Amino acid sequence: MTEHDLVVRNGTLVIPGIGRVAADVGILGDRIVTLGTSLSGKEVYDATGKVVLPGIFDPHVHIGNELSFEEEAESETRAAILGGVTTIGIFIRSLEDSYFQHLPAFRAAMDERAYVDSIFHPQIFTDQQIDEMPAYTRDYGIRSYKFYMSGMPGIVKSVGDDVLLRGFRQVASIGADVIACVHCETGALVARAREELQKNRPQGTLADWEDAHPADAEALAIRTAAYLAKIAGVHLYVVHVSSKQGIAAVKLARADGTALTAETITPFLGISSDDANGFLAKMVPPVRTPEHRAALWAAVRDGTLDTVGTDNTSRRRASKNPQGGLHGARPGHPSLGTHLPVLLHHGRLHDIPLERLVDMATRKPAQTYGLYPRKGTIAPGSDADLVIVDLDLEKVVEPSALRGMSDFSPFEGRLLRGWPVATIKGGRIVARDGDIVAPPSGRYLTRTAP
Ligand SMILES: [Zn+2]
């Protein structure tokens, strides 16, 4: 009988595509090797009364918007691993330069300082970057690229439909599995709406921010991107779907035969625009009315939405500047540490089966980004990345306990039910009862054609 290095004993496994299984998990080195009963190991974690999930895969993360990439590679992945997240997809950014100038440093940071494994989705802005995509894929195993149809003043540029089509064709030429991720909002509609809001409503509430980013601008952009993706023959991944109209546009595009994967994020599932935390929840696209939020939950239930991420963009309260109000508060907030509890808490309130939530947060992103079954399941041969969850544990969100660089959370003060009690990454218990108990062991993951 195998003597395992680590055994997770007596838990209820939630295995995407299979369901709940009462079994022990036997780990040797950094891999799962056995599922069974009465397994023995040098170290045993007793998961009696808990559920054991595959490590959470957050496909939508921004790192280094406030501190350096290197610093946030450590601080924000520390918050991630405490929250049960073991793999992240990072939207790396270079507005002008070739990514060859930045990839070595980004990769080194994730290899040397991160608590979680990572993949990169470079944000594409220039013709040179489009020309170099096949080389990024060859040298760094990158198989997903990101395009912004609507930028953010001072942060990100918008790209026009010409760049989008040229970029899509390049993505498709690299391989059928390579993904075009798109921030879908029609830039001109957003720019006009934002200008008018500034003029007509210099002061306002979080709810007013939605007027700067009309839901119809999202829906129109999804239809445009889907049309271009179809003629380019590329797999389209719509990031952070936020609205009822956006959901309808996703359905139309699929009915029209577009290969499309749709993502939403836990801030949209957990926060409405009437939230008491106000501008702490300001982001782009915006959190919307309860009606939109209900439409997102319906799309979680009926399978229209495939994956769930965070759009984590950590800031400190001083630079977030919530007192700056409707136009002065900056978009973005930390959401890695609350990702899983928000999903579990609100998923339960909306009566969504746990299996469905776990699938969206683990297997679906792993499949989409070419890492399944290494990630996204609990099976012999898979990486030993697991999160052990107490579904009944209730905690009030306290920013300092999340252990990222931020001193606020858009969920602060909120009582959430369902928290991780331990996270195993690469066969080692790294987080336990809210504390980090092992050094970082994350790696940048290169991907290969299937
Ligand atoms: Zn984002």
UniProtKB/TrEMBL annotation:
* PANTHER family, sorted: COLLAPSIN RESPONSE MEDIATOR PROTEIN, HYDRANTOINASE/DIHYDROPYRIMIDINASE FAMILY MEMBER
One Gene Ontology molecular-function label: hydrolase activity, acting on carbon-nitrogen (but not peptide) bonds, in cyclic amides
Co-factor requirement: Zn(2+)
Q: Which residues form the Amidohydrolase-related domain?
A: 51-430
What are the annotated GO cellular component locations?
A: cytosol
Q: What is this protein called?
A: Hydantoinase
Q: What InterPro entries does the annotation carry?
A: Amidohydro-rel, Metal-dep_hydrolase_composite, Metal_Hydrolase, Metallo-dep_Hydrolases_sf
Chain spans, region Disordered: 307-337
Q: Which Pfam families match?
A: Amidohydro_1
Q: What is the originating organism of this protein?
A: Pseudolabrys taiwanensis
